[in-house]
Amino acid sequence: MSGKRRARGLLADDHSLVAEALRSLLEPEFELVDIVADGRALVEAVEAKRPDVVVADISMPELNGLDALLELRRAGSEVPVVFLTMHRDITFARRALDAGASGFVLKHSASIELIAAVHAALEGQIYLTPAIAGEVLQSMREGGETTADPVGALTLRQREVLQLLAEGHSAKEIGARLSISARTVEFHKYQLMEKLDLRTSAGLVHFAIKHGLTEL
């Protein structure tokens, strides 16, 4: 036995059954330091546990995986993050790569691809699931900035507010979570409706679900 230290991994997924399946897949190869169920807990756990790699879902409560990654990068963390998702749309893959992700694996391919993706991330490489790699690379070659993706036009704070609104939190509750006033939350809501050309709160909820910021 070489005694070589196993890489330390952090898992983020809000579906307990999926998380347990992923745990059984990852633990023979990696030391799991924690399993969390939302994006804010992910950001806090990376700071506290200092994992070597993160495997995260994209659609999670409180803060989605993509915005959690942006929060990590803003805080100076360079931990590689591999996204595991049900979203086959290349827009999500582009957003993940633009945010600094190291991998993008579809959940139905996890048993075949996830371990390879994590090893690639640990070696400083980027892993794209073969199912959409060609489409993503073609999109990038064409310089296709995510103009077709209205989420890309929103600021991180606007996406945070939109996700929490869609999850049913009041302006006061959102303000407490984000350390801003309820009035500022309402201002962000107004800006969102203007920018997205929406007229109702229900429209904001529908937009957030359609674009993967939250789930039903």
Structure description:
The protein has 216 residues and is an alpha/beta fold. 51% of the residues lie in helices and 12% in strands. It has helices at 16-26, 39-49, 65-74, 90-99, 110-122, 130-141, 156-166, 171-178, 182-196, 201-210, and strands spanning 8-12, 31-36, 53-56, 81-85, 103-106, 127-128. It has a six-stranded parallel sheet with strand order 2-1-3-4-5-6, sandwiched between helices. β3 (53-56), α3 (65-74) and β4 form a beta-alpha-beta unit. α7 (156-166) packs across α9. It is globular, with a radius of gyration of 18 Å. The N and C termini lie far apart (48 Å). The relative contact order is 0.11.
Layout of SSEs?
Elements (H helix, E strand, L loop, with lengths): L7 E5 L3 H11 L4 E6 L2 H11 L3 E4 L8 H10 L6 E5 L4 H10 L3 E4 L3 H13 L4 E2 L1 H12 L14 H11 L4 H8 L3 H15 L4 H10 L6
Parallel strand pairs: 1-2, 1-3, 3-4, 4-5, 5-6
- The stretches of 5 or more residues where confidence is low (pLDDT under 50) are none
Q: Categorize the overall geometry.
A: globular
- The helix content, as a percent range, equals 40-55%
Strand content: 5-15%
**Alpha carbon gap, first and last residue:** 48 Å
- Pairing-aware structural class of the strands and helices? alpha/beta
Helical element count?
Answer: 10
Count of individual beta strands = 6
